[in-house]
Amino acid sequence: MNPFSSGTRLRDMIRAIRSCKTAAEERAVVRKECAAIRAAISENDQDYRHRNLAKLMFIHMLGYPTHFGQMECLKLIASSGFPEKRIGYLGLMLLLDERQEVLMLVTNSLKQDLNHSNQYIIGLALCALGNICSAEMARDLAPEVERLLQFRDPNIRKKAALCSIRIIKKVPDLAENFINPAASLLREKHHGVLITGVQLCTDLCKVSSEALEYFREKCTEGLVKTLKDMANSPYAPEYDIAGITDPFLHIRLLKLLRILGQGDADASDCMNDILAQVATKIESNKNAGNAILYECVGTIMSIEDNGGLRVLAINILGRFLSNRDNNIRYVALNMLMKAITVDAQAVQRHRATILECVKDSDASIRKKALDLVYLLVNESNVKPLTKELIESLEASDQEFKGVLTAKICSLVEKFSPEKIWYIDQMLKVLSEAGNFVKDEVWHALIVVISNASDLHGYSVRALYRAFQTSTEQETLVRVAVWCIGEYGDMLVNNVGMLDIEEPITVTESDAVDALEVSIKRLNSDLTTKAMALIALLKLSSRFPSCSERIKDIILQNKRSFVLELQQRSIEFNCILQKHQNIRSALVERMPVLDEATFSGRRAGSLPTSVSTSTGTARNLPNGIAKPAAAPVADLLDLSSSDAPAPSSSGGDFLQDLLGVDLSPASAPPGTSQPPKADDKASLVNLNGLASLTSLSPNATSASPAPMMDLLDGFGPSPQKKEENGPAYPSLVAYESSTLRMTFNISKQPGNPQITLIQAIFTNLSPNVYNDFLFQAAVPKFLQLHLDPASSNTLPASGNGSIIQSMKVTNSQHGKKSLVMRIRIAYKINNKDVLEEGQVSNFPRDL
Amino acid sequence: MIHFVLLISRQGKVRLTKWYSPYSQKERTKVIRELSGLILTRGPKLCNFVEWRGLRVVYKRYASLYFCMCIDEDDNELEILEIIHHYVEVLDRYFGSVCELDLIYNFHKAYFILDELLIAGELQEPSKRTVARLVAAQDSLVETAKEQTSSITNIIAQVANFTIKMLHKGYGPWGSNALHLESLFLVDVCTRLVDQH
To answer: Which segments constitute the AP complex mu/sigma subunit domain (chain B) (predicted)?
Structure first.
């Protein structure tokens, strides 16, 4: 390149870039220019340095990398002329930010320029320092800036004041050095200096309580007087905006007064008059006036209470709220949100107007209004407000629906007075905007339905109706599918009809139709389809007439490309075909889902969400959410009333049911509930008289089904006997015509959670039992450890016994009693026998 | 405080960016992209405020340009509208009914004016006249500096011209070859100086 070539002028380059037709063309021009500039930089060309930097800034604004120009800025700043420095500082502010190391190199130049004889050069340095200085630079240059606060020219003083703001924000320790000079700025007459001085004081108050005290004591009266003079000043053309002298200064003074008056009755008293004057006198037909009124209302709301002023402020907000200008309405909503903590009653008066704003065409206003409505809702007005919100849900656009849905769900959960209302509202939301409902929300709905035993029929029918009209809402489909699976019989037989319901005729095959539709819907996702498969499996035992059809539908998924569906289809088919004997037990209705556990688990992830709407919302401490249980518990845990709620994904319902979760049992959580008298539990017999469960002890000949494999792993290992702690009478835990099981219970001293149980089995029949295997299952709040049995052969006619020890850890010790499901398998003359039962007559407080 | 100022054209082209809070280059590009998507799509009658990442963006459209300022939640939005208007009026006074092209070709001037209006994200001068006076004073400083350098250039150019004339006329006490080289160098120096200004 010719060393004497000047390259193109800035104007020519901009023109060339602007005339580019395509992005590629533009890139080519920029690349060429950048190459030329790089060449000039590497040759250390001084004459065109500032033109090159100007070009680089333009290129930077277009979004191209310009880091190679950073050093050029420093060189320009270090040169002596004003034009070079002016461009250099501009480049510095544009191309660098405070986090770049290069910036440190400029500290020295800045220091020199802050001491320059030319005030414009001082101004440049102050401006750059104020805009991008880092904490280190702030520390180094603070003394210079502090000195410049007393500079003879007001234009430097005002720049120094703003620069000080940056410095004290970066290094709050330096604040005390600035308190005195800042206070003296408040006495200035020059508006620029005054405005920046007031701003500096405001920021000093924010970082230093010492400064706040100082200004409150020394400056409050002076500031009030300044504001008074301003408000009463005659027309001043230089500062006039819409007939008001310097609204900017007005606003800053009001802002500083707000900070000084907050929490101080004397200071608040001192400013009452002028605030009243501003609030009444300022005209509100122009934006500038409204800006002052808005600030004034904010100050009135923040300072110590003065009834009269508050009324005035709320009235101004009311006027704002009915203004036709969207900006004014927006700020009114914004201020009402702050006012709600001060005077909720006054804000409630504007409820109707605010609700109108939720339906506004302006997204910003809608959102603000919704936030406000959310704060306004309480127990007494939740019903009408929710109704309004759901109505606006129908009219809102997609983007807003998400926000609105989340808010409605949260409100309904928080304030719902009764379950039926909760279910109704959720149904409306699901049918209107089901696709926007978050997982935990519809999970919560299922938990609530499951707990409201008298509403099962009502819910399933309502869901079925809703499902018939809108199949597009994914979460609605899921909840409907779950309920049809669980309560399909209630749907068909109209069980639990409420007075308000219209009768509905649904046949068994209609219910199966609904499930089939939800599997075959094109836009059903995996979770929905998987849930529908489970629902079908459940219906297969409840609707014997449809079982063939159900089998067909399940089989259709055998070739699904989705592994999950394929696997479920094959497994379920297997259950339908080969395991008739366990099927009905397997597909029994889900145990009632534990709301406390569920909400506790939710609370872990969603601190703001509230527990579901039972009358007694229990707040549980962390850690008891899901006590780990032995894997076998899941398998046999069919109807224990203490079964924990299903967790986040729909698939877990299945996991809990079939015990797919085979992860090793982990230790129970450390937190234990303080012992609390549980009235119901106290009725449990202490004397050990067995209250046997009704489950049939009839031995069914289960071939070694795959299911049984899950129970392996309880192989023999050395037996250990531990007997200490308080003694309990032995109890007959299980007795049938052929077998008796007695429990000897003991406690481990020092650890009340652990119960040691010695099970003694006695043969009451004349046959020898071979391959004797005892299995036990406990709900999840318990943890069970089985030691190996003393033998696997039980001699006939009570001529001997098998002894097996186990250890149960009760993580809810003191709250819940032990309960256990048992299963005993053995062979008589090589014929399999299976006995099952439940032990619920444990002494309480185990 | 104002976190940043953006001027975006209706087509989404950036005309001016000023950052008072630290944003890395990557973040800056992202912010501009996000905000132009948010603001340019809004209808004409809607309010001038957009909530964004826990902050609030106040924007106002003047002809084909959107002036955007990002502020804290508790700042006065209406005042920011007034500040934007203040800036526009100063620009208008400076350029004489300003248009987008003025701000493209004289973007540095737009920055200089903004620097006289805001520092550290706070307003520094409520008087339009004072801002105009300060910018004009600095512009004239630049002019003076330019004139000084160009007058030096003129002197050199005159000397060079004179020498060359002399050479052509055959005057000169110097040897012809050396002299010819010397004068060529002078001509080079002159062209460079003239080019520069």
So the answer is: 1-140
